[in-house]
Amino acid sequence: MQVMLKYIDVKYTFGVYMSQVDAITVKVPRELKTKMKQVKLNWSEYIRDSITKKIEEQKMKDASVKLDALRARVKPTTTREVVSWIREDRER
C-alpha cells in the first residue's frame, strides 16, 4: 500500500545528527488512516525507507545529468586509440 503524497502535510525540526532524532508529522485523511490501521505494518519504518529511497533515486538522477553533461563535452574516442593507450601502458 502506498501513501498518497498529495494529502501529506509535513512539519519538521532540525537537530544535530548524532545527538538527536528529528520528528516529522504527517497528516492524512481519516479514511486513509483507517485503512492504514487495517494493514499490519510499521508505518514509521516504511516512511523512513521510502524517504531514503527517494533521496537515493534523486542522487542517481543528479549524477546521471552530470555524466551526460560530461559526455557532451568529451570528444568521441575510437577503439584504435583505446587499444594504443593500453599497449603504451603495458610497455611501461
Explain the overall architecture.
The protein has helices at residues 30-38, 43-73, 79-91; strands spanning 10-12, 24-26. With 92 residues, the protein is mainly alpha-helical. It has one domain (5-91). A two-stranded antiparallel ribbon has the order 1-2. The model has no long low-confidence stretch (mean pLDDT 85).
Keywords:
2 strands; two-stranded antiparallel ribbon; 3 helices; single chain; 92 residues; mainly alpha
State the gist of this model.
This protein has helices at 30-38, 43-73, 79-91; strands spanning 10-12, 24-26.
Average pLDDT, all residues: 85
Structural class: mainly alpha
Quaternary arrangement of the chains shown? single chain
Low-confidence stretches: none
Biggest beta sheet attributes: 2 strands, antiparallel
The helix/strand series, from N terminus to C terminus, equals: EEHHH
* Outline: elongated
Put simply, the count of helices is: 3
**Number of domain modules:** 1
Total E-strand runs: 2
Strand fraction: 5-15%
Nearest-angstrom radius of gyration?
Answer: 24 Å
Strand order of the largest sheet: 1-2
Helix content: 55-70%
Distance between the termini: 59 Å
